[in-house]
Amino acid sequence: MPEFLITWLIAAAALMITAYIVPGFFVANIVSAAIASVILGLVNAIIKPLLVILTLPLTLLTFGLFLFVINAIVIWLAGALTPGFVVSGFVPALIGSIVLTLITSGLTMLVGKRS
Question: Domain range for residue 62?
């Protein structure tokens, strides 16, 4: 259970930092970031695999680069579903997905979480 809480806190902190860095990304407060990280995790677990399967030919054709688009769509959808978490367009979602991945990886290495 503590591993789950650490992962959740890292995800919430990464969302707050990403909102500070990326224009067009907005998180109202830490509670909104915590809720958004849960919703983002659920969307990643349920909807993202379906999108990956449906767009597999396009992903193969672009040598995997279309996965960046899928990540942006997932973040954009999480922003639409979460009160207090706003993603103002596709480009901020695309840039935000890259920045969010980098920040989450950095925080995970900093904390020393083993997965």
Answer: 2-111
